Amino acid sequence: MKQQVELLVHNIGQLCTIPAQDGGPQRGARLGALGLLGNAAIAIDQGIVVATGDDADLRARYEGATMLNAQGRLVTPGLVDPHTHLIWAGDRADEFERRLVGATYQQIMAEGGGIVRTVQATRQADLATLVEESKARLAAMLAHGTTSVEVKTGYGLTTASEIAMLNAAALLDSEHPADIALTFLGAHAIPPEYAGNPDGYVDLIVNEMLPAVAEWRAEHWPGTLFCDVFCEAGAFDLAQTRRILEAAARYDMALKVHADEFETLGGARLAAQVGATSVDHIVATPDDEIEAVAASDTIAVALPPTPFGLGQTRYPNARRWLDAGAALAIATDCNPGTAWNENMQFVMALATRAMRLSPAQALAAATINAAFAIGRGGEVGSLEAGKQGDLVIWDAPSYPHLSYRFGRNLAQVVVKRGQIAYHSWWVGLPL
Ligand code: NIG
Ligand code: FE
Question: Residue 371: pLDDT band by 50, 70, 90 thresholds?
Fold first, then answer.
């Protein structure tokens, strides 16, 4: 008697299971272990992976209420995007044009442009507008194969507008098949009201915002809530970053740090010291801080679309991070200032060229390690029995295609918790 399951994906030409390593991320030289199976199938029931294995064997054992014939194609876990600023209103296309003729991101920020422009637009937007604009981006992410997305606040910068962003994120999480990991980023920029008084704003974060966020969380967000700080010249210095993170930890929040996007302030070492889940950007991280992060449980998240989006040539030094034994993940950094992109396939294409990752390393960095970067390595990021049934059938025969090709969406069917959440019509996979 065959066991009934909700979904059987069969006739998979190449299945990448991308296993966790000793229950953790794939570290250092071990990055890129894809757990490849040829002629494979995967059985999913009640949203959870029941079995992966040989096609004939699984077809003999399982009957799917839905049978999906992958027709020899590539199947991977759903991609995980562990760093996005998904929620904002408006755009900054004019700043992009200015940067192309010589203005720098920091110059524009110092003149009162940059993040605070998006803050103004976001404060003015009502909740429905904010959710609508952001949902379009989330839908694009899902359609490109991303099934779990980290989302930050940080374009409100008042207690009320930061809470409004948390509400928008919670609404998106409940209304949309993609899962959201949520991060409070009140420390994204010094808002105009506190220009010249950054410590006054840090006081506000510590004394008013964090308590309000903790109260909001008790009512609306049962899972992990992260607190992140943009540790950078012109944003928050090392002492301010430490103060905010230590206060957040007292509210039982998990921690993240934006560090070394442009300059070295010591944010990477601090992230390791305070036990942050991840440290992100890591372009300008010095060797001794790379060692410190590698010796910790903190995941190093590279965001290659950011230097690309800014037209810069300096990317994180992946070789150094991997030689040190760090757990490296990659993300879009989707935001209106430096990197408006929703597509993790593009991030893999870029990480292979600009950071010299192999296609296997890029894929593991975009799945299992990205899952650990949002504290969900036990639930998503790999196709192992007991984990969520999140997967993508790609219009490609093998994993290198995901990095090798770029500029068009190769995701053909996206499954979230065993349910088809997106499929393209134009390639004509019979469903
Ligand atoms: O990660 N670095 C800080 N935040 C974003 C930029 C946000 C913006 O410019 O709106 C980033 O690059
Ligand atoms: Fe960011």
Answer: very high
DSSP strand pairing (225-231 vs 254-259): parallel
Burial label, 201 (beta-carbon count in 10 A; 0-12, 13-18, 19+): buried
Contact 338 CB / ligand 1 (< 6 Å)? yes
Residue 38: Cβ within 10 Å count: 12
State the average pLDDT for the chain: 97
Q: What percentage of the chain exceeds 70 in pLDDT? A: 98
Check pLDDT > 80 for residue 428: no
Ligand 1 centroid vs 108 CA: distance in angstroms?
12
- In the DSSP assignment, the letter for residue 24 is B
User: What distance in angstroms lies between residue 188's CA and the mean position of ligand 1's atoms?
Assistant: 8
Q: Distance (Å, rounded) from C-alpha 381 to C-alpha 19?
A: 8
| pLDDT value for 376 | 98
CATH of 3-78+380-423, one of 2.30.40.10, 1.10.150.240, 3.30.565.10, 3.40.30.10: 2.30.40.10
In the chain, where are the structural domains located? 3-78+380-423, 80-373
Residue 329, H or E segment? strand 328-330
